[in-house]
Design brief:
With about 775 residues, this protein is an all-beta fold. Helices cover about 0% and strands about 55% of the residues. The protein has a single domain, classed as Maltoporin, Chain A, CATH 2.40.170.20. A hairpin with a 3-residue loop joins strand 25 and strand 26 (about 505-510).
């Protein structure tokens, strides 16, 4: 992680808080708990706040990570996990943190150069999915990644309760040209599937600084193949001795996440995707240390999802429809819900514009705006009554259209230094408006689902939320070796224009709602010894319901999401105590963290055997309490020159203490563990520079057993819909062939572990990369 001794790179104002003082070169790297970083563009994270922050730079990424997208670079951060199921995963790659699981995407914030990438239209996955827009940042454009843990800055909304991730992308100082190509493959064997899947990726970048103008241009294409992610099943207990059906073979008898015997009948949701990305950045420096910058991002995704039946009749023919008999028992008919086919076409745009002063004098300011637009968002799917192979060539289905969905942000920020850069006070303040709009129309198609225009309405949901905020915080050095940051955030939340239509039973326009809250923040640090700093942080966070949670009910052949327009906001108090010790060649950190959340917002997915589909309900959970310890160690030149190590271990005990709701019977969730929060997590990565040309690395990731359900009934993690223990080893070797050309080779999941988070993760994956830099 980034450990440096000067703050030169943060000398410019940043989008959310202006730069810290320029400390002397011989000052401790974590003096008073203030983060200091050198090189490249400044981070927008509030580095003046003495709380837990971690980072990684471009050189470290190149040495240690086989990265195919921006989510990969978070792989070895303490307590973080991106639920990435395959290369190019665009709709389920949720970020998890200390006390926020992989179903809670709205409890973290992801930015690129201050532009919001987190999809706060919804939370997690269900009928719709809301991961961060990882595809708008490619690995080759990343300069650095910084992470702040917890809601301890007043500059961020309550969605920061888990973590805030900031991608700092490249902005050249001179002419640059780069090209890269990578290839990966992963053989996959599970439930009767035995296939090798491949991913190709190419990219090119150009940039230059000429006088007052700076520009950067990046294009990227990725073609990826993913392993099956879902599986049609039948519970053995649902079979009957009497009844019709075609006798079939080819089933796999196993147990589901609840430990019940069931048959796996085939595979589904096997994606082949093509993703194109374009990023253009333009900046101009005006007289008086004022910079204007514009960013345009374009991302297009074309995805084909397919299914396969493993069932065979007496003649060896595939069986995909009608009732079947297995081991003498008759089971419910196979439909298109068992073997869904999907075609998706998404075109999204991102715009960011900012004008800021960078005087580092008494006062600096910034005006920043961004827009993320679902210009086109189409998903076509066969109907339940139209199973393959007939559905491959047409027949009835649906078209889901999310065009017009998106979010807009506007922020006015200022920094006041009444006594200059070395004064006792640095005051930051701002006004912010965030608008989110959901528009999702699902139409029936009676003829050819793959090509025909939409017909009658199946469902139509939408609405808006708006968050208007005013905030301020003061970084106050009130005594030698002491520093505190006092802040507060006033928020006015509105939900309006909400409607839910599900033909023919539901047609509702929901009443408007509004709410106002204040969230105080405090952080204190004490330089106990020249090499040791002690820190304490406390913050309140309000995570308001998203548009999809309030209004976004959806119903398809194989999935249903049930909304709740009366959801209460989630209220969290989060605190941490930290000791950081500078070592001769690194940093040692121990953090105790605690969080209590009332009215926690949760999406709970269960399988409805009668309807043969997953049903997700959103609800408030009364009170969840979490406590834990996080240990992190980073060092360079460990034992011998050129050997660098970063390692972390996290223990978390997260328990549901109060809840009026239930899964099966009243009280069945109280005293149970919070879903998707493991007791233990650990990461470690070591890289070694053999000579001027060669570097190698070995990484390890571990996560202990966890639950997915609120009542912890999913006792079998090693199954479809279960969450298993994770332990994988990754390796990478990089060679600098000459001044301009480099190559890398790696293997992720070297030990070929099969592990699950509802869906199966990739097994052993081989990776190769070639780069040219001018």
């Amino acid at each position: 992680m980034i450990r440096t001794r000067a703050a030169a790179a943060l000398a410019a104002a940043s989008p959310f808080i202006c730069a810290p003082p320029a400390w002397p070169q011989d000052a401790p790297a974590r003096s008073l708990g203030v983060v200091t970083v050198t090189g490249g563009q400044p981070t927008s994270l509030p580095t003046q706040i003495p709380t837990t922050m971690e980072g990684i730079d471009r050189e470290q990424i190149e040495r240690t990570i086989n990265a195919t997208d921006s989510g990969d670079v978070l792989r070895y951060f303490p307590s973080l996990l991106v639920r990435k199921r395959y290369p190019g995963d665009y709709n389920h790659a949720i970020l998890s943190s200390r006390a926020s699981g992989t179903g809670n995407s709205a409890r973290s914030l992801v930015y690129a150069d201050g532009i919001l990438l987190s999809n706060l239209l919804g939370n997690g996955v269900g009928g719709l999915s809301f991961p961060p827009r990882w595809g708008l940042v490619t690995p080759e454009e990343i300069e650095r990644v910084d992470v702040m843990y917890g809601p301890f800055s007043a500059a961020y909304p309550g969605n920061s309760v888990g973590a805030v991730v900031e991608y700092v992308t490249r902005l050249p100082r001179r002419f640059e040209a780069h090209a890269a190509a990578s290839y990966s493959l992963h053989p996959f064997e599970l439930y009767g599937t035995a296939t090798t899947y491949r991913t190709w990726q190419t990219s090119a970048s150009l940039g230059n600084r000429a006088g007052d103008w700076t520009w950067w241009f990046n294009v990227n294409r990725q073609d990826s193949e993913g392993q099956p992610l879902t599986f049609p099943t039948r519970l053995v207990s649902s079979g009957t001795a009497a009844g019709a059906g075609v006798p079939v073979t080819g089933v796999v008898l196993t147990r589901n996440s609840a430990g019940q015997p069931w048959y796996v009948l085939g595979s589904a949701t096997e994606y082949a995707s093509r993703q194109d990305h374009l990023k253009a950045k333009l900046a101009y420096d005006f007289p008086g240390s004022i910079r204007a910058a514009y960013t345009l991002g374009w991302w297009e995704n074309t995805t084909r999802g397919r299914s396969a039946s493993h069932l065979r009749d007496a003649g060896g023919n595939a069986v995909t429809s009608g009732p079947v008999r297995i081991d003498g028992l008759s089971f419910a008919p196979l439909t298109g819900a068992d073997f869904p086919l999907t075609d998706e076409r998404l075109t999204h745009y991102m715009h960011g514009l900012s004008v800021k002063s960078r005087t580092q004098g008494v006062f600096d300011w910034e005006v920043a705006a961004s827009r993320y637009d679902y210009h086109r968002d189409h998903k076509r799917q066969n109907a339940a009554g139209n199973p393959p192979p007939a559905a491959e060539s047409g027949g009835p289905g649906t078209l889901a259209d999310g065009g017009g969905t998106g979010w807009t942000t506007l922020a006015l920020r200022g920094t006041w230094r009444p006594d200059g850069m070395r004064g006792a006070h640095i005051v930051d303040f701002g006004l912010q408006r965030d608008d989110f709009e959901l528009a999702y129309l699902t139409s029936n198609i009676a003829g050819q689902w793959r090509a025909d225009p939409p017909g009658s309405v199946a469902s139509n949901v939408g609405g808006r939320t708006q968050l208007t905020s005013m905030w301020a915080q003061d970084a106050w050095s009130f005594a030698p070796r002491w520093k505190t940051v006092l802040g507060a955030r006033l928020e006015r939340w509105r939900a309006f224009s909400g409607f839910t239509v599900i033909t023919p039973a539901v047609d509702t326009a929901w009443p408007d709602r509004s709410d106002t809250h204040v969230s105080p923040k405090i952080a204190v640090s004490w330089q106990w010894r020249p090499d040791t700093v002690l820190k304490a942080s406390l913050g309140r966070a309000l995570r308001f319901p998203t548009v999809a949670e309030l209004y976004g009910a959806t119903s398809t052949a194989n999935a249903q999401f049930i909304n709740d327009p009366d959801l209460r906001p989630e209220r969290s108090w989060t605190g941490e105590l930290t000791a950081e010790k500078e070592l001769a060649n690194g940093l040692l950190r121990l953090t105790y963290f605690a969080e209590e959340t009332r009215d926690a917002l949760y999406n709970q997915t269960v399988f409805d055997a009668a309807a043969n589909r997953n049903v997700t309900r959103v609800q408030n959970v009364g009170r969840i309490a979490t406590q834990g310890l996080e240990f992190a160690w980073s060092a360079t030149d460990v034992a011998l020159p050129g050997l660098n190590v970063n390692a972390s271990t996290t223990f978390a005990h997260s328990e549901i203490r109060e809840n009026a709701g239930f899964v099966t019977t009243p009280g069945d969730t109280v005293g149970k563990r919070q879903p998707n929060i493991p007791r233990w997590r650990a990461t470690a990565v070591a890289d070694y520079r053999w000579n001027e040309r060669w570097t190698t690395s070995v990484g390890a990731r571990y996560s202990s057993r966890q639950f997915r359900t609120l009542d912890n009934s999913d006792i079998n993690g090693y199954s479809y819909m279960g969450v298993s223990r994770l332990y994988v080893i990754d390796v990478r070797a990089r060679v600098q062939i000459d001044k301009r050309l480099s190559a890398a080779f790696g293997i992720d999941n070297l030990n070929n572990k099969t592990y699950w988070n509802f869906h199966p993760y990739p097994q052993r994956t081989f990776f190769a990369e070639l780069k040219a830099d001018l």
